[in-house]
Structures are given as structure tokens and as C-alpha cells.
Amino acid sequence: MIEKSIQSSRGTVYYWTNEMIPHQRYAIVFCHGLTADHTLFDKQVEYLADEYKLITWDFPLHGKSRPYDKFTYANVNKELLSILNQENIEKIILVGQSAGGFIAQSFVQEYADKVIGFIGIGTTPFGKVYYKKSELFWIKHYSTIAKLYPYSYYCKASAKASSLTEEARGNMYKTLSILGKKDMLKAASAVYGEFLKIEDEVQFKCPVLITYGEYDNTGYVRKYNNSWAEKTGYPMKIISNASHNANYDNFEEFNDMLISFIQSNL
Hints:
Layout: E1 2-8, E2 11-17, E3 27-31, H1 42-48, E4 53-57, H2 73-86, E5 92-97, H3 99-110, E6 115-121, H4 137-140, H5 142-146, H6 151-162, H7 166-179, H8 181-195, E7 208-213, H9 221-232, E8 236-239, H10 246-249, H11 251-265
Helix pairs in contact: 2-3, 6-7
């Protein structure tokens, strides 16, 4: 994978990609979760890079894509569109983990014609219809609560809560340590603040697959995913022996699931 970047008045955004695979008409774009970075998808890159055009990125306020001004989902969409234009990519499959699923859904809302597939990993749907006000309390006050903890403790606890395997926990702990407490709080406030503004559910015009880890106990992820699948009829699969970062915990099962999704729908 080759490191590249795009620039705007808001900041520099970094991404990683391989060469376009002959005869492939689309790219797979991976969107990491809150306070993670592009390395969350290292196991997918290792498995897929020889056969598919891939893009991983540190979306704004994360990883190398700091500092960044005027964070909004609309501005993040502009950055991703700039990446696609720079790579001459017309169509994409979006894979969004946790808050990366928010970024992906926002892009679908604005640029639906570019998206030919969506896979959510431990994310939750847009649309106030799914959420009770009491359940949104922890999202609204996440940064306030997180600020109370010593950051070393927060990093260890978050890594343990989000991942099942030692390797996956190590990845998350390293990412959080590099990010630092100040930027972690800034990212959380920005990402969740934007999410709380969303009123309408996404009307997908492409194939959708909802997934989450068997042992994902993050918030109400299980409840929201089950409701999402039940309301829409979208297929849902539970990734065995995995927690919130399910694509890293059980990458073999997730990779097979991803390939099956592509072969069945595209």
C-alpha cells in the first residue's frame, strides 16, 4: 500500500492505496471507527490487496489526518470524494466499522450514485426512529465522561472492551496512545456531535450487509443492528469469536464474508 494525501483549506487527509487491478471497475474503501485509524483494516489489506483496489484512510481528526478544521460529515464526504477523484475511481464498496459506519452512511446519503455496496461492522443506523432519548445520553456526554479517566487507564480499558484477541487489543491500544487524550476527546465530540444531528434514515440503493461481533457489548450495538435488519430486511451476520473490532478479532471469517458479499452482489 502506498501512502498518499489530499489537501484542502481544512487540513491534510492521508490515505493508503494499491494499484488499480486490471479489469476491476470499483474500489473497496474502509472507514475505521472512532479514535482508531487505517491500521484497523491491516488484516483485510493483507488478504485482498493482490486482487482488489483498496483504500484505507485516516478520516479527519484521526491518525495522521490531524490537525483538521471545521469537522462536519459533509466536509469529510468532500475529502473522500477528493480521494476518489485523485485515484480516478468512479464506484466504491464502503466498509464502515462503528463510527466509520456513520461516515460511510453520510457519504451514501450525499453520493449514492458512487456506492455499489455497503457493509457495516458494529455500526448503527442513521435515523432518530431507532433511538430512545435515554439511550443517546451516553453518546451526547461521551467526551465529558471519558475526560474523567486517566488516559493510560482509558487506553487499556477501551482496547480490552473493543477487542477480543491480544493482537487486536494491541492495535487499538497503540492507536489510542498515539492519538493522545486531547485529540481523542476532540474527535469524539466532533463525530458524535455530528451523529446527533442526523434525523433521517439512509435509503440505500445498493446491496447492504449488517454485521457485528458475537461478543460486542458496546452500547446498544446488538439491539440497533437487530432492529435495523428487522425493519429493512437487510441481511445480517454475526461474526463468531469477535468483539466490537470484529474485522480484526476474527479477520478470517470477516474476510470470507466480504468476498462472499462481493461475489454474490457485484
